[in-house]
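Intended use. Records such as the Membrane protein entry shown here are meant for training and evaluating sequence-to-structure methods. They are not intended to support clinical decisions.
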Amino acid sequence: MLRHAILAVTVLLLPACASSMSGSAYERSQARTAYDVQMGIVEHIREVQIEGTKSGVGAVAGGAAGSVVGREAGSSPVGRAVGGIAGAVIGGVAGAAAEEGVTRQKGYEITVKLDSGRLLAVVQAADEEFRVGERVRIIQGGRGGTRVTH
């Protein structure tokens, strides 16, 4: 029962570790910051995959859960110690993989021809639909990187 509770908490907390790659999400520190805005036309859209986070939180949580489960498997003090160590290693690897997998997301590489004639490609989360030929805004600057929006 305890191992199921630990696993459930780990899985629920992992997405909270990921920062948003959305074109419409801003961190608190990005508010009240001036950004440059340029206009352009979408030239090309390519679906991409944005890797998940690898912060170490998943490995730590998985290692802790694996250690608890591994200790339960041993019947002697030495067996519990070995089981705890093995469980921690296996749980850490599994937790790291789970963190990356849970926070991985679909994205778009959006190529925009700016009004100046310059081509610019931006990768962001696929949470907003764009079409080739559509007029869009490119927002750059501050600590917000670059984003494409309507």
